């Protein structure tokens, strides 16, 4: 990689979000950064893809009327095809756990890059809900670029060193989750794997069903069984979580399925 890596920067919160600008400014200090990001909020759209999108020039690069996956494809195939790395973020709100990976637009932008054989880093900020005496909703927090300092510091470090260290010879993308800064030293970085905790509920009441992810409430109270080494445990304990992941679905040999296939059509 050259001394000034070329980076495609995208996200799902939109090109004018605070977290996006925080990463853009941090990465631009040493890299050639081109923004190719959604024109507006595209949170939790997963890998949704459009057939056609409009693009307009923006002070930071290009704003796309489309999804994060659209942005990755448009950037790598048309707008800035010769990049060393795709960075997606910084998302306001953590993307933790195996079940979240397919829902997140931020992570999906990184996954899309993997299919182009371009290394990628997805970056998200854990914004804790208010505790006792703090009634501010989490989505009204993290409005200052300084709130993203841990995320920006971790991203710049990984961007500078991961390619040369051979990280992407095994991992296709990194899922990074950072806590908001607190008084004291910057957050420590730990390597993790996605948590398998799943606690979705569905309450049916008079023709409507309320879908609710109880994991966030459990995080707020500390009631999480996630073991050491998982992404959620690391972030709740104040660390920067880095999960090295691969994008293609894996397959395994299944003798039971082989037996079924052999008798297909026989009955």
Automatic annotation (TrEMBL):
Residues 7-193 form the Survival protein SurE-like phosphatase/nucleotidase domain. A divalent metal cation binds at residues 12-13, 43, 91. The keyword Cytoplasm applies. It catalyses: a ribonucleoside 5'-phosphate + H2O = a ribonucleoside + phosphate. The keyword Nucleotide-binding applies. InterPro entries: SurE (IPR030048), SurE-like_Pase/nucleotidase (IPR002828), SurE-like_sf (IPR036523). GO terms for molecular function: 5'-nucleotidase activity; metal ion binding; nucleotide binding. Keywords: Cytoplasm, Hydrolase, Metal-binding, Nucleotide-binding. Binds 1 divalent metal cation per subunit. Its cofactor is a divalent metal cation. Belongs to the SurE nucleotidase family. This is 5'-nucleotidase SurE. The lineage of its organism: Archaea, Methanobacteriati, Methanobacteriota, Stenosarchaea group, Halobacteria.
């Amino acid at each position: 990689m050259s001394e000034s890596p070329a980076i495609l920067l995208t996200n799902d919160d939109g090109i004018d979000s605070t977290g996006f600008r925080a990463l853009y400014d941090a990465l631009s200090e040493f890299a050639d950064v081109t923004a190719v990001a959604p024109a507006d909020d595209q949170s939790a759209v997963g890998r949704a893809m459009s057939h056609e999108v409009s693009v307009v020039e923006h002070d930071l690069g290009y704003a796309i009327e489309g999804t994060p996956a659209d942005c990755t494809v448009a950037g790598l195939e048309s707008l800035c095809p010769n990049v060393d790395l795709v960075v997606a973020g910084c998302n306001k709100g953590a993307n933790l756990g195996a079940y979240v990976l397919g829902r997140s637009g931020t992570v999906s932008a990184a996954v899309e890059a993997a299919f182009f054989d371009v290394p990628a880093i997805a970056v998200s900020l854990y914004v804790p809900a208010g505790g006792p005496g703090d009634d501010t909703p989490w989505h009204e927090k993290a409005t200052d670029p300084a709130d993203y300092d841990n995320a920006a510091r971790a991203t710049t470090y990984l961007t500078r060193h991961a390619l040369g260290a051979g990280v992407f010879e095994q991992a296709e993308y990194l899922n990074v989750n950072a806590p908001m800064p607190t008084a004291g030293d910057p957050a420590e970085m730990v390597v993790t794997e996605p948590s398998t905790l799943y606690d979705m509920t569905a309450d049916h009441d008079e023709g409507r069903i309320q879908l609710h992810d109880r994991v966030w409430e459990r995080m707020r109270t500390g009631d999480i069984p996630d073991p050491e080494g998982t992404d959620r445990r690391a972030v709740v304990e104040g660390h920067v979580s880095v999960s090295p992941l691969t994008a293609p679905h894996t397959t395994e040999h299944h003798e039971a399925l082989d037996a079924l296939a052999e008798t297909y059509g026989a009955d």
